[in-house]
Design goal:
The structure is a single chain. The protein is α+β, with helices and mostly antiparallel strands. The protein has 2 domains: about 5-50 and about 255-385, no CATH class; about 70-240, no CATH class. The protein is about 55% helix and about 20% strand. Strand 6 and strand 7 form a beta hairpin. Helix 2 packs antiparallel against helix 12 and helix 11 runs antiparallel to helix 12. The chain is elongated and about 105 Å long. About 40% of the residues are buried.
Length: about 400
C-alpha cells in the first residue's frame, strides 16, 4: 500500500468521527500548547532581561556597603580607584524616593545624586538638554535631569528642558530629559530625577557614600577591576561581609542559569500532558481496531499483508498526533500575538521549541500507536470475519 493512500485512508477515518478525533487530539493540543507557551514566555523574558543588562554595560561593577559600622568612604577616597589601569570611571551615588511637583501635577520619583561620570558608566541617552556637569556638583546647584515618565506626568510633554520642578520642597531647574526606556526595563530611568551628588547629600540628608559604580577600562579587564574594588573595600571596611560587589556579566550569567533551569522544569511539566495525550490516542486506536475488525478481516482476505494493516493504523495514529501538535503550535502563535497587545514585554514564539514539540508529538503518536496497530496486524482473517 502506498504512503499517500494510507494517509488518505487515515484522514478519511479521522474525518468520519470528527468529535471523537478532536477529543482524542485534545491531550496533544494542550500538551504542545503548554510546552510552547511556557518555554517561549520564559525565553522571551530571559532575552528582555539580558538586553537590559547589556544596555547597562557589560563592564559595569556595582558596589554597596551593607554595614553601618563600616568606615565611611569619601569622594576623594574613590578617586584613588581611578588611578588603577583596570578602572575607567567611578561614580558614587545616593538615592531615595520622593515626590516631584509642577503646578498642580505630581509624580512619585526616585531621587538619585550622581556625578558626571555616572552617564559615562550607565550610558543613558538624552532627548533634550544636557548632562549633570562638574560645575553643578561642585557648586551644589539645584539642577536636574529627569526621566520621560516624570516629564509626561508633570507637563504632559517631553521637551521640558528649562522648566522648573519642586523636589522635596526645593526648586530645581530641568537641564535634560532622558529618552524613554519602557517599564519592562529593570531600574528604568523613566521615573528618575538625577541631581548633582553633593546637592543630593543635602536634600536626602546623607553624608556618607554607601553605593558607587565602577566601569572597567574594557570587558577584558572586568575581573581585574572587580578584584581592585574588592581589595579597596576590604581595606576600607576591614570586613568582607560588610559589602557586596557585583558585575553585570555575573548577573547576566545568574539570570541565564535560573531561566534555563526554569525552562527545562516547565517544559518537563508541560511535556507530561503530551504523554497523557498519547495514552488517549492509544485508547481510541484500540477502540478503532475493535470497531473495524471485520474491515481488517476483509482486507486480509483479499490479499492485504500484515505490514499494510500495521502501516494503516500507525499512520492514522501519527496523523492524529501531528494534527494535534500543529493545532497546538498555531494556538500558541495566536495567544502570544494577542498577549503582545496587552503586555509591555515582547513575547516571541521559540521556533526551536515549536519544532521540538511538534516532533515529540509525532514520536508520541508512533509509540502509543504501535500497540494498537500491531494488534490489528496480527488479527487472523477468519477470526476477524466472524467477529461480532
Amino acid at each position: 500500500m502506498k504512503l499517500t493512500q494510507a494517509i488518505k485512508m487515515a484522514l478519511s477515518s479521522i474525518l468520519s468521527t470528527k468529535l471523537r478525533s478532536f477529543l482524542t487530539m485534545l491531550g496533544i493540543i494542550i500538551g504542545v500548547l503548554s510546552v510552547t507557551l511556557l518555554v517561549s514566555i520564559v525565553q522571551s523574558t530571559t532575552n528582555n532581561v539580558n538586553d537590559t543588562l547589556s544596555s547597562l554595560g557589560g563592564n559595569v561593577i556595582s558596589a554597596s556597603i551593607t554595614s553601618k559600622r563600616s568606615s565611611s568612604i569619601t569622594t576623594s577616597d574613590l578617586e584613588t580607584l581611578e588611578n588603577n589601569m583596570a578602572v575607567d570611571s567611578v561614580s558614587p551615588i545616593v538615592s531615595g524616593s520622593g515626590t516631584a511637583k509642577a503646578s498642580s501635577n505630581s509624580s512619585s520619583v526616585t531621587i538619585t545624586g550622581i556625578t558626571p561620570e555616572y552617564q559615562k558608566i550607565k550610558e543613558y541617552t538624552l532627548t533634550s538638554g544636557r548632562e549633570i556637569l562638574d560645575v553643578d556638583n561642585e557648586n551644589r546647584l539645584q539642577v536636574c535631569v529627569i526621566g520621560a515618565t516624570v516629564a509626561e506626568d508633570l507637563f504632559g510633554r517631553a521637551d521640558v528642558a528649562g522648566e522648573k520642578i519642586k523636589v522635596s520642597g526645593r526648586t530645581f531647574n530641568i537641564v535634560g530629559v532622558i529618552e524613554e526606556e519602557g517599564s519592562s526595563q529593570m531600574n528604568s530611568n523613566d521615573t528618575m530625577v538625577y541631581i548633582p551628588f553633593k546637592t543630593a547629600q543635602r536634600v536626602l540628608k546623607s553624608t556618607t557614600i554607601s553605593s558607587f559604580y565602577v566601569s572597567a577600562s574594557s570587558e577584558d579587564t572586568l575581573k581585574m577591576a572587580e578584584t581592585v574594588v574588592n581589595s579597596y573595600l576590604l581595606q576600607k571596611t576591614g570586613d568582607e561581609d560588610s559589602y557586596t560587589v557585583q558585575n553585570q556579566a555575573d548577573i547576566a550569567d545568574s539570570v541565564s542559569d535560573v531561566t534555563t533551569s526554569l525552562s527545562y522544569m516547565l517544559g518537563g511539566i508541560a511535556g507530561i500532558s503530551l504523554l497523557v495525550g498519547g495514552i488517549g490516542i492509544m485508547n481510541i486506536m484500540l477502540v478503532s481496531v475493535t470497531e473495524r475488525t471485520k474491515e481488517i478481516g476483509i482486507r486480509k482476505a483479499i490479499g492485504a499483508k500484515k505490514k499494510d494493516i500495521l502501516w494503516q493504523f500507525m499512520i492514522e495514529s501519527v496523523v492524529l498526533s501531528f494534527m494535534g501538535g500543529l493545532t497546538g503550535v498555531l494556538l500558541s502563535i495566536i495567544i502570544l500575538a494577542v498577549a503582545n497587545i496587552f503586555v509591555s514585554t515582547t513575547l516571541t514564539l521559540s521556533v526551536a521549541i515549536s519544532v521540538f514539540s511538534l516532533g515529540f508529538s509525532i514520536v508520541v503518536g508512533i509509540i502509543f500507536g504501535l500497540y494498537p496497530a500491531n494488534k490489528a496486524a496480527k488479527l487472523k482473517p477468519i477470526d476477524a470475519l466472524h467477529f461480532e
